[in-house]
Amino acid sequence: MNFITSIKEYTSIRKHPWISAVIGIVITVQIVELILLIRKHNFFTPGFLQPYSIESLQDRFLFFSASIYGDLFLYGTAALVCFFITSLLKRKHQITAYHFFFSVTTISLTVLLAKYKALSYMSDTINFAIIKNIAGGSLLSALTYVADEAVIIVFLLSIAFIVHWIGYKWLKKHLSREALTEQKNETFLLRHIILFFTIALAGLVFITVIVQQHNNVRYFVIKKNSYTLLTSTLDSATDFDRDGYGYFSFPADQAMFNPRIYPAAVDIPNNNIDEDMLLGDFQLPNKVYSLDYSGVTSDFDYVFFIIIESGREEMLTKKVNNLIVAPNIQKLSEAGTIFPNTYSHTGFTVTSLKAIFNGEFIPKHNQRSLFEILKESGYEINIFSGQASSFGDISKDTKMKETANHLFDAVTNIDDRVYASTALGSLRLSEETVITGVTSHLTKARPTNKHFYYINLQAAHFPYHYPGMKNFLEVPPIPRNKISISNQEWVENSYWNAIASADNAIGELITHLKNLNIFDNSLIIITADHGESLFDDGTLGHGHKINDAQLKIPLITNVKSSIITDPIGQTDMREVLLDLINRDNNMTLTKNKLTYREAVFHYLGNISEPVQISHTYSDDRIIFDFRTQKIMIESSGQWKQINTIAKHTQHSKMFDELIYEWEYLNYQQSISQGE
Q1: Which tens digit of pLDDT belongs to each residue from 576-601?
Q2: Which of 203, 223, 243 finishes a domain?
Q3: In a domain, 284, yes or no
Q4: At a CB cut-off of 8 Å and minimum separation 6, what does 307 contact?
Q5: pLDDT tens across 22-49, in order?
Q6: Which of 2, 3, 224, 226 could join 192 in a cystine, given CB atoms 3.0 to 4.6 angstroms apart?
Q7: pLDDT tens for each residue of 390-422
Q8: Can you tell me the distance from the alpha carbon of 83 to that of 556, in angstroms, rounded to the nearest whole number?
């Protein structure tokens, strides 16, 4: 019996269980995945801020061809392997094919639903690097954030297992004894399977090459799980120089046999080689500068540096139910100074805090953290954090732990945590616990000493509520399982109530300072680690989208100072704080640092492998997407090819500056990691 005859013989589900299983899987996955894709991306019609759409009949035909062929190839290959093994072991094909169909369908749908559940909160820039950054560099910590969703998935899988078992019993009962015991005298010979696989593989390569030439189709079909897995395999197979990029990546590796040249490679300056394939060989800029901190004096007896988790910039003016969300912060800002254009570089807690305290993106041997400078200036360092200060190595990399005279955080007071979990990324203390710790320490503090207090308030951390949080805005907290875009207003109100809780804690601190008669000689600075999308941009959370909702943050102080309207990044905050401590109304350190640039740099992912990078100017923002090789000037609201901005001098200059800063940081990081 030859290969073709074998195929023709299987003309029913009973006689053709494997073909039936593959077709059933493909149809099921295609329908579910297409519904989820359209719901998330609506890619058949142009969308606002969407880089591509699939509108022509030709492109739609190509999309469906690649989508269906990818599923057929992946599941068909798996079925061929299982068929061959089943034949060798002389097992019953109908039963094995049934197990194959149910197992593969369940796994595929579970992965799909989990993926699009995450995408219902986040933008499609999300990847493992971003997930790890959100969770402080640990995928294990990231899993603790989705514990509730994991329970639901386990429940659904349990139901699927029960249905599978019932179906298996029914199948055994209703199949004829002949069907159950029949063993084929002939099986697919290995050479026939290899021949079929080779032909199918050639077809996959052919259709993938065509898709690569249609950017809009590629952009969306790569969101298919099967297509992504297959093209990643093809790309790895053509990665001859083992630099992580092959022919099927985008952009493709233009030097297939040179491991130094590939997309996002470290571009070694002044060597006449364009390693990252962007704007020619990188020329090292004259960006070396040194700021003098020797003149910093401890003019304030007490300095309180308060960082609010996930604090959006508009907290200063926000009202809910005609109630001011942050009256205490608002009052402080009115009496002091607001720095109106302040930004997080990444939208991640760990990288943001390190940028704030170190004043740099890349750790250097000779860098001096804010804690070290203040310690040398005569301040005692007191840490009061609602999270674990060791989360993501924050305390180690910023010299926080090394310099601290007093450390009070979610680890040292683990019994006071607001959640049951003891995972490092899940540890939280209430604002009341943190502020009580601060006020207790203040009461005992020696007035002859100078004191610096770093206070971290975690109230606005997802899911924006914990047992015992007070209702300040007359809104009930949203249960975690109700958090969705359909409940956007409820989500927003719960978030703002959490901000109100943090503000109330700050109010209690201010009252205590006044009771101790030390408020007038206290410097208070309030900011946030990053912002938070609340479905107002279609997503929830932070660290996965470059926009004001996730990146623009408050920066206010209770003292009068010259207002800096230029964009300020978190790497500038060390200098801002030192100028304020030094009562330098001219903000000399800050302005000296800002002379080296016009914009604040942002990135999603890692500096070495970013998904997007961006520069925020005082009047605009430019974003470059490494996945599409497209640029957006935010004021235009359109994604454009790189070559289309060449005629626009200002936009071309903005793009050059963005790429040069990223290349500089990527190069500096490679040097730092090589030390």
Answers
A1: 999 999 999 889 999 988 988 889 99
A2: 223
A3: no
A4: 353, 356, 454, 455, 456, 457, 526, 527, 528, 529
A5: 999 999 999 999 988 887 777 777 654 5
A6: 3
A7: 998 999 999 999 999 999 999 999 999 998 888
A8: 67
Please name the residue that has the structure tokens 């955080």: 409
The model's pTM is 0.83
Range of the domain at 655: 598-675
pLDDT at 561 over 70: yes
What does the angle CA 81 – CA 128 – CA 655 come to, to the nearest 5 degrees?
A: 120
The whole-angstrom separation of Cα 498 and Cα 257 is 54
For strands 323-324 and 552-553, give the pairing: unpaired
How many CA atoms lie less than 13 Å away from 411 in the CB half-sphere?
11
> How buried is 76 (Cβ within 10 angstroms: 0-12 exposed, 13-18 middle, 19+ buried)?
buried
In this structure, is residue 388 part of a structural domain? yes
Could you tell me if 356 and 411 lie in one domain? yes
Give the Å distances, CA to CA, from 428 to 146, 408, 542: 16, 12, 18
In three-state secondary structure terms, 127 is coil
The vertex-615 CA angle with 285 and 604, nearest 5°, equals 105
Q: 67-125: per-residue pLDDT in tens?
A: 999 999 999 999 988 888 888 787 778 888 888 988 899 889 888 887 777 666 555 55
What's the CA gap between 531 and 541, in Å, rounded?
8
Structure tokens at 94: 């109908």
Longest dimension (CA), the chain: 97
Distance CA 604, CA 620 (A): 18
422: Cβ contacts below 8 Å, ≥ 6 apart? 414
Q: What is the mean pLDDT of residues 373-391?
A: 94
Average pLDDT, the chain: 86
Tally of CA atoms within 13 A in the half-sphere of 223 that contains its CB: 25
